[in-house]
Amino acid sequence: MDFKNEFFKYFIHWKWFLLSLILCLGIAFYFIKTIPPTYETSALLFIDKKQDEKTKIISTSANTTNESTKEENLEEEVRLVSSNDFLMKVVRSTNLNISYFEEVYKIQGKYVNEVPFIVIPTVGNDVLPQISYKVKIDKQGFTLTDIDSERKFVVNGYYGSQTADGLPFKIQLSPKALKNPSYFFDTEYEVSLEPDEVALKKLKKALDVVTDEDSKGTLEISHTGTSPYRSRKILSDIIVLLDKNIIINKQKLYVNTVSYLNQRIKSFTKEKDSIESVKEKFLKNNDILVMDSYIVEKTADRSVKNENSAINERQIALTNYAINDIRDSNGLRPLGTDYKLEAPSVNQMLLNYNTKLMESELILQRAQKNNPAYISLMTQLKSQRQEILNTLESYLSSLKQTSRANRAEQNIANSKAKNIPTNDKILGNINSNLNTKEGTYVALLQKREEAILNGAILESNLKTLNSPETNYSPIFPQPRSFMLGAFLLGLLIPFGIIYANLQLDSKIHNEEDIHKINPNMPFLGYIPRISSKDKLDNTANSRSLIAEATRTLVSNINYLLPGKNDDKAKIILVTSAIQGEGKSFCAFHNAITISNLNKKVLLIGVDLRNPQLHEYFNLNKNELGLVNYLFDKKVDWKSSLRKANDFSANLDVLIAGEIPPNPTQLLTNSNFETLIEEAKDLYDYIILDTAPVQMISDTLNFSHLADVTVYVTKFNYTDKSSVAQFNKFNKKNQLKNVGFIINEVNMKSAYGYKYNYGYQYEEAIKKKPWYKRSLS
């Protein structure tokens, strides 16, 4: 970034900066001298929140972790002091809806601590009108003037016994002023009234309540106003009122705490009795005296029942085995006596059976099977065997009945044993609830005693660390910062306007603007803005601005011309984007400058739609010119030439002539190229003043004939978008060897550039210093 260039963009408007600074500093100085200064008054309080913990009802482990935070939290106090109800009491206690002033200057009012009179409202403070009166004390009493309506009121006497119609108050002298009323005759005062709501809003706006983060438990209250005395009075009243509110809130808390504790104690008594009744009913329903004994009893009963059932099942199995074994015997072998049955009669019958069987074997050893004694004995054995089976089946049936009874008892015992954990849990929950209720009941009794004790010794936990003090260095307006702000604002306003104008400006002003759009395009120079009387001053010896500028321009154009070995003329095409950018003016002066260098120059007006060259030579635009030759090749174009002897003997001019209806067709026929080829052999330079390329295509039809193209832009006129359109022509190679110039440049400045051409010899000789002009 070119900081010098950026600086001069703004510095050229130094007059506006100076005017803005004078206005802003003047207004700031006037404001400082007329506005009453505003002071800040503050007080520092300490509120011991640890005392409040004594009145808390229940402290749980959850809130003990945040105990320190709760002790130091003053949000309740901040909200209280900032509340409307609290501040409304301050408004009424300090009469903030009535303000007194002493008129020191007509443009400045000074708030006074004490005035020689007292205003007593005759209507409610909430319906007081928002109005101001000027007050003067004289021999008769008081003269009051409504500032808005200029209505006057006269109150006779100094004691406030008389009222005036339309005044919402009575007025009387203060006891101190009654001693010498004449002392106040020459002074004018002002009293302002406003309803409570308005005074409340002003107080809230002027009051600030914050907590100190570094010093826990401290509260800072500050008030800003024009009267330090009133500010201190307001803060003192706030402190007193806050202290009273803390005591009142503690008393309410004490009463509510005791009432709450009594209510909870009564409720817990009922709940404890209810739980004890539930426990009693549960023990009775479950036949429980002591839970531990109940568990031992039910466990032992289940074991006995299970063992009895197992023994009975074993007897059933043994009995079935005995029955099957006896049935499988053929009556000739002894029956087993080791069945381990718990039936003595069956065992005895088995022994008897085996004894008789042995007798039958002894008989059979001595006699045959047909022996009557043997047959009789065998009959008896068969009968005994059947009797044994019948006895076993009866025993088995008895065992099965016993088994069914045992299973029922076993299920009952098992069920009771399984219910032991449930009953133990239920009883444990009942005991736990009962213990909790009993513990809470005891804690509530203790808290009630503590609350009653604290209520007997209630005291405020508010301490004033710093009484209300006023910082007599005004916070508004602060002259140094206010004047500095005015100075910066005085610079910022014109800077912002100029910056916005520069950002919105889309016109071409200097070489930098062109190079930002077309960075690779050559820049040929500037043509300065000159007055109409000076625009033709471009002789060979001229030191005018236009002469010096065009000499520089011609020198730069020569650098663009391609080197040629032949002696034919060099063709310079002068064009622009749109009409009115001064291409004819530039072509005219370039032709004069080149011709003054002893070069033969032909200047041709090729803009057939809006010709302008004839005006520079005081010719009639309808005279014979280029159009006549293009229309009829038989016409000798040389006969249409005009010698510009007033400017240079080496300059010939061929104007456009009468405007044709078909300029494009005329320029695209071969006549124009023939003319150029013939002129190349006669002149050193041929300058073509052509039509704008962005509006019509005439120039593009013969632009290939040029050796160099001079693209004219106009200072603060040509839009940057028009220059950007040139890129399209450049990409298509429709314009050859192009160089840009800027026409009608303000020679004093153009965004910081100064354009001074030549040495200004003549002006330097004629111009005298300012201190010598007055002597001549």
UniProtKB/TrEMBL annotation:
One Gene Ontology MF term: ATP binding
Coiled-coil ranges from the UniProt annotation: none
The entry's keywords: ATP-binding, Kinase, Membrane, Nucleotide-binding, Transferase, Transmembrane, Transmembrane helix
EC numbers on record: 2.7.10.2
GO cellular component, one term: plasma membrane
InterPro entries: Bact_polysacc_biosynth/exp, P-loop_NTPase, Wzc-like_C
EC class of the enzyme, as a word: transferase
Residues passing through the membrane, by range: 12-32, 482-502
Protein name as annotated: Polysaccharide biosynthesis tyrosine autokinase
